[in-house]
Amino acid sequence: MRRLFLLAGAASLAFAAVTGANPAVSPASAKAPAAASAEKQSGFARHVMVAAANPLATQTGVDVLRKGGSAIDAAVAIQAVLGLVEPQSSGLGGGSFMIYYDAKTHKVTAYDGREKAPMGATNRLFLGEDGKPLPFFEAVLGGISTGVPGAVAMLDMAHHEHGKLPWADLFKPAEKLASEGFIVSPRLAGMITSKAPQAKAPDAVRYFTKPDGMPYTTGDLLKNPAYARTLQLIAKYGASGLLTGPIAQDIVGRVHEGPRPSTLTLADLAAYRPTKQEALCKPFLTYVVCTPQAPSGGPGLQIALGILNQTDIAKRGPDDAKAWFEFAQASRLAYADRDRYVGDPAFVKVPVAGLLDPAYLKERAALIGEKAGPVTFGIPEGAPEVGPDKTAEPGGTSHFVIVDAQGNVVSMTTTVESIFGSGRMVDGFFLNNQLTDFSLSPTDSDGTPAANAPGPGKRPRSSMAPAIVLTPGGKFVAAAGSPGGSAIQAYNLKVLVALLGWKMSPQDAVSLPNLVAKGDNYGADPFPEPIMQALAERGMTLSTARGENSGLQAIVVKNGGYEGGADPRREGTARGF
Ligand code: GLU
Predict the structure, then answer these.
(1) 113 Cβ closer than 6 Å to some ligand 1 atom
(2) Is the whole model's pTM more than 0.85, yes or no?
(3) Burial level of 319, CB count in 10 A (0-12/13-18/19+)?
(4) CATH fold of the domain at 1-20+31-48+90-102+277-577
(5) Is 448 a catalytic residue?
(6) Could you state, in order of their start, the residue ranges of all structural domains in the chain?
(7) Whose alpha carbon is nearest atom 4 of ligand 1?
(8) What does the pLDDT look like over 317-370, one tens digit per residue?
(9) Looking at ligand 1, which atom is closest to the CA of residue 464?
């Protein structure tokens, strides 16, 4: 039964990914083409492994590792390629969170390249003249949605510490693809003609229209000489090539244009510094799971894992409806807490210790019960007075995982926030709309500030939660992560339960149907009828109306090497040697 279950799920999901017709919803009734085999996206390798969302990016990473490059070297080269071939998801104009495992010291570091709001931003950033929050896409398309991009600066920092190959060389593969052209993939083609308002924004239309007036489509060769020139500057000057000088001037100039011009200055860009700190590492089953700290999705994912740690889910399996009930309840409880409490810890008190305290998690797990009732946030130790959250998150993000020949590991989630970010471009790349990851409304009705309210120099809360799993002794076990907007927490939770609890292969684990339980919503991929029925009896009616698809990539240690898997819902591949 498990076998059938997996293939049926993977096939209809792959259909949704390939058509790209409506990236927001995968129709349950869609007929899947016979060719949709999850197997082609997975791989085993003895020495190194890369899993990324686009085959050109995966190949670039493997090539860098073959030349003796480190996992961080490969990450730099992969990001440069993804920004070109998957511009709907991540790029030079975006931000990122990265978890890095050092094979020698067994230390796990969390790098934070999250965008920051300009110093001129206030908590009224997204309020209209009437004092009400702007309609979401009006906010996205405005100059005000762009934060200072942090992904390149974060990689620059990590490369100084862990790079082996020269920084400049790592941009050559992407530069070549940009100047000679790359083949437009089905997913990118689907995004170009999608209903996303950014796809209709003037910069996007200009870039994606062929000389004959038609949009670029699957199989077309697309060149981006401006992107190649930008890479040359970054190759030469590091992150300063982006955050100072002519490109910085272009960024400021573009976001100062209407509608809704930004206050972003050259000083905001030049002042950007990524950060790094110890990862947030917590026990799950017999393992230790490491994620980034707040304002990332790390704490939310850890709450969900901590709750499930109090259940028997590992003894159950993917064919067991009770397992999915526990999974959904833990998700709902964790979302309620993370929505309430997580914001930028440099600005608001985030009670992480209280939220992850075993006694508190036990109390929360006791609320799982036998039937789905209403869930609300808890009051952990150190909980501050914060208002309800009004954050909205549509999708446009990528995840990749890398293990190098020395056993160092990268798990990186990277994003321009929405599809093609704000829809505005400079110098061959899209500008992010990450600041709409703030709660557009800064307060609740009685004036209590929201933890994730906008503020000057503040980082918006993220759902991104790249994970690395170790043994308690510090040996590498697995790396995984996904895009998906607020559904990231559910996607990552699923893959970790499937890998660590149900001992599934990475490919089977990522291909499992997704269930995103948040509040009273149970958005899901098609599940086998008996599971849907059993869940309905417990008060959970699954619906296919759900947000962004997952784009999970995962690697596990196996048989003296590594096994990788890539999500059949997108175009990723896992390769190594
Ligand atoms: N901007 C979102 C975040 O940082 C991610 C969006 C997505 O996954 O598409 O959490």
Answers:
(1) no
(2) yes
(3) middle
(4) Glutamine Phosphoribosylpyrophosphate, subunit 1, domain 1 (3.60.20)
(5) no
(6) 1-20+31-48+90-102+277-577
(7) 462
(8) 999 999 999 999 999 999 999 999 998 899 889 999 999 999 999 999 999 999
(9) 10
